[in-house]
Fold this sequence. Notes:
Elements: H1 8-16, E1 19-26, E2 31-38, E3 43-47, H2 54-62, E4 69-74, E5 77-81, E6 86-87, E7 95-98, H3 110-118, H4 126-136, H5 152-165, E8 170-174, H6 182-198, E9 203-207, H7 210-216, E10 219-224, E11 227-233, H8 234-238, E12 252-263, E13 268-273, E14 276-281, E15 290-296, E16 300-303, E17 314-326, E18 330-337, E19 340-347, H9 348-353, E20 361-366
Parallel strand pairs: 3-9, 3-10, 7-8, 8-9
Antiparallel strand pairs: 1-2, 1-4, 4-5, 5-6, 10-11, 12-13, 12-15, 13-14, 16-20, 17-18, 17-20, 18-19
Helix pairs in contact: 3-5, 4-5, 5-6
Amino acid sequence: xxxxxxxxxxxxxxxxxxxxxNITQPLDDFSLQVDLALPxxxxxxxxxxxxxxxxxxxxxxxGLIRAEHAQIAVDGTVWQDTHQGLFLPVHKRGIGFVFQQSxxxxxxxxxxxxxxxxxxxxxxxxxxxxxxxxxxxxxxxxLGRRCASLSGGEKQRVVIARALASAPKxxxxxxxxxxxxxxxxxxxxxxxxxxxxRLQLPIVYVSHSRDEVSRLADHLVLLERGRVLASGPCMxxxxxxxxxxxxxxxxxxxxxxxxxxxxxxYALAQLAFNQQYFSVVTEKVNVGQQVRLQIQAKDVSVxxxxxxxxxxxxxxxxxxxxxxxxxxxxxxxxxxxxxHTVLARITKKSADELKLEMGLxxxxxxxxxxxxx
Length: 373
């Protein structure tokens, strides 16, 4: 229960998870009450609609808000414990923070902005963390430019580099793409994916964008009116029919796959998973490259016999493991393909006419042009 002391056993487990958070903080019309243990590395996404308490949670973790009741420990170090009167100020927590707005110093150029983030650690760090961040975020050519001349996507890349320049123990990102248009978001997402693959430090990423979370997150925390509905590995969370995620118009799953072949004539990538393959229409990708494949439930159909002479290239034998009736006279099916799970949203009429039931073997079909990577 939020606000209570952790037992020694619980505290030991939570410290092993790297980020342990137990917070009670009153808000305007509800109270933020969270009890979380997040992984040592990778991206943990705090996901929910606007006003659910995501930013408040992040600000408490950063120390920008001194929560009414809190126990926060990161990598074995206690940052706040109200029962013991402990509160580590922001500048001693070793965090990097990326806000929605760029918050750059407009009178300084890009390099000077980045060096502002590095100066607390000394210039010796510049040759390692800072240069690596500059290269990783592709901003070498921007170093001498004034920040006022940068695009929104370029500014956010500079902000991230400045946050990394201080060699933080934890990187906090509060909806970093929310102020950007779709074009700029697509410009910066590949750089965030590079951070995900290359950096070892844990990242807590606040977002209300399912697409961002699908592409970036390893661990997902679903927040609603200040309470944690569920928390766990991202791939598992998206496939759970007991969560609101499965009833959204863009409900679906995310699979980690590997590019096994690329056909430039047809712009088709062959993605290997579970000793099977998906064909996806996409721009050039490299063989051996690991990619995340998003499969939306609305793009999956099922049939009782193996399709023949069909325009749909992706067809897989699957078992129905769960059926849930959803609003709009529709049915959500949970299908298992070996060790993987796919969701299919169909009409209740189709489910009744096909006499679908749990355990039934069906063939799932997915259009190549509908898949997202």
